[in-house]
Amino acid sequence: MSSMRKDSAIQQTAIDSWVATRASEIRNLANLQSTTELDLDNIQNNLKFFASHQQEFEAVSFANKEGIVEFSTMNQIGVYITERTYLEEAAKGHEYISNVLLGKVTNQPMILFSAPVMNIKNQFEGVIYGTVTLKTIEQLMAQFRYGDSGESYLIDRNGYLITESRFQGNWKPLEFQLNSDILERAKQGIEATSTYENYRDMQVFGTYQLVNNGKWIAVNEIERNEVYRTFNRQLIVMIIIICIVLTFGFIAMLRISHHIEHPVQHLLKGVQRLKQGDYKYKIDYTSMKSAPVELLQLCEAFNQMSQNIQDNEIELKQQKEDLAGSNAELEQFAYVASHDLQEPLRMVASYVQLLAKRYQGKLDQDADDFIHYAVDGAQRMQNLINDLLAFSRVGTKGKELKSVDFEVVLQHVLTNLQHAIQESDALVTHDPMPTLLADSTQMVQLLQNLIGNAIKFRDANRSPVIHIGIKQQGKERLFSVRDNGIGFDLKYRDRIFLIFQRLHNKTKYQGTGIGLSICKKIVERHGGKIWVESEAGQSTTFYFKLQDRENM
To answer: Rounded to the nearest 10 degrees, what angle do helices 365-396 and 293-359 cross at?
Structure first.
């Protein structure tokens, strides 16, 4: 009985390994399709390649996210599978292993394995599924039959026979439901080895193991009378068999290790060469035909990636240089244009204001309105030019990054905003502020813009409450500026960072709409990023990340 228990454990490992290997093959095949856009030709080539090299699978197919079969080695193209469990599980991002099914064509028991095809954005694109017969399992079970009366078979948790019976040839899998003590023991999880009366009404020694995550029960039995007669002989035979299996297994393991290790070493070498900038390096895998399919396809994918990088390297370098030059020219143009416009505009504004002062009320109402519009337009133009000048100076006039105490920065901001805070009865709180490498002047400008906006866009029915939060996230500090103001619709979240873009009427809220553009440019100059979350009528929270170079 001890030998039977050991053999059952070996049997359990072999069955679970077989199931896990098939699931892994389908999973790897699905993962190969993770691209930006679904490429049906590539999927078809991969499935054909897989089917020709993996003999366990009788059929392999791909269905798109609508449940239409796009490719199948069983000529099922165009079939709808919308109500199949494996499609529903794949749509949730789950793999699936079916219970034992009877094939509609072969009428043989089989298992279906499936895995979702997700693009690089982790969006569901379809499902790859394949069917495997139980021939290998049948052969495996046959190896664990003892003597003339021994039997090894699989049943599901309802007692239905999954593999063929040794003694009842007319019983077909999934049609015969046995009832024996071993089934009840397995359901209750009690002692795995015992003496009992089996489904043939014979007194037997038997043992069971739960396999395939508990879906199946592997039963090994031998008639009690034969046990005593053949125990020693069976023990010797099993020892020999185990030695042979282990020997062949060890040899197979060495061969598999060689077949896997060789391409992996080439891949590692390729990665190192690619890391060093050698984009011309290619992996020669013509001598690795016996290696696993996935590794060969990985080698080919590496070669293609290396070629693509090589092709794009010069173009990207040129584009980067052109973009850097263009940005520098634009910044310089904005600075010169706004600076040179200051003097003529100041003259226009002065004379228009002089007209307003001298002739206000002396002409008709239309003249007064025209003068008012001219004065207002000149002032707004001055504000726009001043803001444009400030925007251009973020990149060109920024100071060298130095160690900055943000407690001091915040005190400067609160001092600058003292009148607005007192007038609105605002409450500003904050977490302990860090010390970071930054441009202190631009940090004052950044926080002053965000806190000033929180005060400006307050709810008329409640006093502003503003909190500045700080969190450590790896090598970055996450700042948040949260208020209880009027908020806005999140569909405008990208627009508010664009230059001269406003969400509100200028007559109700003053400003040119450039403040948040300056904030974005300041944060990006410091190697960070800024974004916003808001709920209309409730609150707005601006987030920005800065690198914590002080603690690197």
So the answer is: 140
Question: Which residue matches tokens 């070493």?
Answer: 265
Q: Which residues contact 288 (CB under 8 A, 6 or more apart)?
A: 259, 262, 263, 266, 295, 296, 299
Asked if residues 456 and 509 have their Cβ atoms less than 8 Å apart, the reply is yes
What are 200's two structure tokens?
């043939």
Calculate the alpha carbon distances from 325 to 236, 266, 318, 331, 499 in Å. 83, 41, 11, 10, 21
End-to-end CA distance of the chain: 63
Number of H helices, E strands in the chain: 12, 17
CA–CA distance, 317 with 306 (Å, rounded to integer): 16
Q: For residue 505, give every residue at least 6 positions away whose Cβ sits within 8 Å of its Cβ, in sequence order, or none.
A: none
Identify the three-state secondary structure at position 62. Answer: strand
Only one residue has tokens 């584009």, namely 319
Helix axes 406-416, 440-456, angle to 10 degrees: 50
Which structure tokens are listed for 427?
């409450």
pTM here is 0.41
| Bridge-based pairing state of the strands 476-483 and 465-473 | antiparallel
Which uninterrupted H or E stretch holds 152? strand 151-156
Q: What kind and span of H or E run contains 516?
A: helix 515-525
* DSSP-derived 3-state class of residue 446: helix
User: Cα(125)–Cα(110) distance, rounded to whole angstroms?
Assistant: 26
Which segments within 23-88 are labelled E, that is strand?
Answer: 57-64, 69-72
What are 192-228's pLDDT values in tens digits? 777 877 777 788 888 888 888 888 888 888 887 776 6
Q: What is the DSSP string of 338-387?
A: HHHHHHHHHHHHHHHHHHHHHHTTTS-HHHHHHHHHHHHHHHHHHHHHHH
**42-77: pLDDT as tens digits:** 888 888 888 888 778 888 999 988 889 988 888 778
Tokens matching residue 480: 């948040």
Task: Tell me the β-bridge partners of 234.
Answer: none
Angle at 44 between CA 310 and CA 49, to 5 degrees: 80
Secondary structure (H, E, C), 194-239: EEEECCCCCEEEEEEEEECCCCEEEEEEEEHHHHHHHHHHHHHHHH
